[in-house]
């Protein structure tokens, strides 16, 4: 009927008013993140505290934004040594494909989402620097069973 | 007390009431609109942001008083006062209680409408003198809108005047004492429901409130007629707007909702001593309804608004006046 829209709208705003605000005062109050919320990429570490990354380059090749870079070299014993694992967070769209692609469960999407910065250099994050990559050779060097 | 001292004291009291109203209403508007939109509104200055408005006023007072070089300086300077002073004068006839009012005018209703009709003049002056196209459009719209809606606004109250037999606002309130059929308060809202509906629509237009805020129209005209104003001049225009909404709401309470009366307690001494409080609470409920409408409705177009006024509300209010007069004659005979 003509004119009922007015009362419908009034009822709707009054219902909103009685519901109470849904906004949070952000810097003071934070919303609890959902379990699978994707923040900044981070590495996983084994029980000895060494990164689980094998420098297999699958994440680098998977990334649709080409923001991951791994600089590594072969060591004398035939293993891999990671010089630098570079993550350009400014270009990351937090799709999580790198995490899905990783066959060694070595990376995960963390919960850090406040990534704004006034310094563009801080958007280039070096996640790993000068560490031996995970693999049989590192296990052997640590005294574990080779060929794990 | 001499007459001059009495007049000066009343003027100062009216000014204090108007300023206090402005402070409260600006805070109330921001909070009410925020909660209607599921937001929080001001939260940081004082408990739940209660000091936000005082901070805003300090900001307005300390801002540069700026006059655009192309503006008509005289008109630009006096225009805010031409808006502010009539809106202050409109408090004169409002009955806050059985004996509490600034003046007891026999033509109180006509007087209030007469001074309220000076407001569009100031608004148009502000728009013209600013020498800016947005201000000019805003000022012209305000003039067209307020002049065309004054007619139905006044006509819609005539039914009440016929029933009360007086233009004195205190007498109109007194005639609403008692009950119909022993239970329904004798307020004029019931027999004059049609008149009240016209009064509400025309009042919203008269106040430049959404859905009739064409003269401000933030999304089209930035701030309409007050575009080029800064500092306390803008503050005057702003305060006058809030003060007008108090006056129109107070008129609605006086004419349709029994003014200061509490049904059944008309002769009770305690209730009578609380009369101003009752009156102000009723008025603020009315203002809340204005804000509620503002938080709900979108703005209509200027041509829609003018055709609603001239083709809809004026014939309707004339028809309503005729029906009221005929019924009163029939019942009286």
Structure, described:
The complex is a heterodimer of chains A (148) and B (333). In chain A, 22% of the residues lie in helices and 21% in strands. Chain A has one domain (35-142): Alpha-Beta Plaits (2-Layer Sandwich). Chain A has a 3-stranded antiparallel β-sheet with strand order 2-3-5. With 148 residues, chain A is an alpha+beta fold. Chain A has 4 helices and 5 strands, in the order αβαββαββα. In chain A, strand 2 (68-74) and strand 3 form a beta hairpin. The mean pLDDT of chain A is 86. Chain B has 333 residues and is mainly α. In chain B, helix 6 packs antiparallel against helix 8. Helices cover 67% and strands 1% of the residues of chain B. Chain B contains 13 helices and 2 strands, in the order αααααααββαααααα. The radius of gyration of chain B is 20 Å and the shape is globular. The mean pLDDT of chain B is 86. The relative contact order of chain B is 0.14. Chain B has one domain (3-327). Chain B has a two-stranded antiparallel ribbon with strand order 1-2. Chain B has helices spanning 3-36, 52-62, 73-89, 108-116, 119-129, 133-164, 169-174, 193-206, 218-221, 231-256, 269-273, 275-296, 302-332, and strands at 179-180, 184-185.
Strand content of chain B: under 5%
Order of helices and strands of chain B: HHHHHHHEEHHHHHH
CATH level 1 class label of chain A: Alpha Beta
Cα Rg of chain B = 20 Å
Q: Share of helix among residues of chain A?
A: 10-25%
Number of domains of chain A: 1
Average pLDDT confidence of chain B is 86
CA-to-CA gap between the ends of chain A? Answer: 76 Å
Mean pLDDT of chain A: 86
Care to count the β-strands of chain A?
A: 5
Based on Cα principal axes, name the global outline of chain B: globular
Which two chains share the most extensive interface? A-B, 14 and 14 residues
Instruction: Using the CA coordinates, give the radius of gyration of chain A.
Output: 24 Å
């Amino acid at each position: 009927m003509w004119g009922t829209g007015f009362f419908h709208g009034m009822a709707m705003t009054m219902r909103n008013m009685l519901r109470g605000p849904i906004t949070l005062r952000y810097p003071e109050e934070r919303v609890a993140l959902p379990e699978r919320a994707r923040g900044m990429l981070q590495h996983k570490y084994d029980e000895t505290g060494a990164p689980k990354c094998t420098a297999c380059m699958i994440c680098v090749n998977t990334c649709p934004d080409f923001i991951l870079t791994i600089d590594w070299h072969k060591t004398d014993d035939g293993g891999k040594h990671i010089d630098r694992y570079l993550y350009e967070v400014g270009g990351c769209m937090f799709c999580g494909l790198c995490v899905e692609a990783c066959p060694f469960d070595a990376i995960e999407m963390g919960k850090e989402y406040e990534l704004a910065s006034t310094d563009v250099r801080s958007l280039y994050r070096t996640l790993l620097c000068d560490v031996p990559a995970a693999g049989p050779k590192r296990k052997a060097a640590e005294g574990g069973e080779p060929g794990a | 007390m001499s007459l001059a001292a009495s007049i000066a004291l009343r003027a100062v009291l009216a000014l204090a009431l108007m300023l206090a109203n402005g402070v409260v209403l600006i805070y109330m508007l921001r909070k009410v609109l925020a909660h209607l939109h599921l937001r929080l509104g001001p939260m940081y200055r004082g408990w739940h942001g209660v000091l936000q408005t005082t901070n805003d006023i300090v900001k307005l007072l300390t801002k540069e008083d700026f006059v655009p070089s192309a503006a008509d300086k005289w008109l630009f300077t006096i225009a805010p006062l031409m808006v502010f002073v009539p809106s202050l004068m409109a408090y004169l006839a409002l009955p806050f209680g059985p004996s509490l009012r600034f003046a007891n005018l026999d033509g109180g209703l006509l007087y209030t409408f007469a001074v309220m009709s000076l407001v569009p003049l100031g608004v148009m002056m502000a728009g013209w003198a600013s020498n800016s196209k947005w201000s000019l459009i805003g000022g012209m719209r305000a003039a067209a809108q307020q002049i065309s809606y004054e007619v139905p606004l006044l006509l819609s109250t005539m039914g009440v005047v016929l029933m009360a037999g007086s233009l004195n606002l205190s007498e109109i309130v007194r005639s609403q004492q008692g009950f119909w059929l022993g239970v329904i308060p004798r307020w004029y809202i019931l027999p004059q429901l049609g008149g009240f509906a016209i009064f509400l629509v025309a009042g919203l237009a008269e106040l430049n409130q959404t859905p009739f805020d064409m003269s401000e129209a933030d999304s089209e005209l930035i701030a309409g007629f007050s575009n080029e104003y800064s500092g306390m001049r803008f503050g005057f225009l702003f305060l006058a707007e809030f003060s007008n909404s108090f006056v129109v709401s107070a008129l609605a309470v006086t004419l349709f909702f029994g003014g200061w009366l509490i049904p059944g307690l008309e002769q009770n001494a305690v209730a009578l001593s609380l009369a101003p409080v009752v009156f102000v609470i009723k008025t603020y409920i009315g203002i809340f309804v204005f804000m509620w409408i503002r938080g709900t409705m979108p703005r209509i177009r200027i041509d829609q608004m003018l055709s609603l006024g001239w083709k809809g509300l004026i014939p309707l209010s004339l028809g309503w006046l005729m029906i009221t007069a005929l019924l009163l004659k029939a019942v009286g005979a």
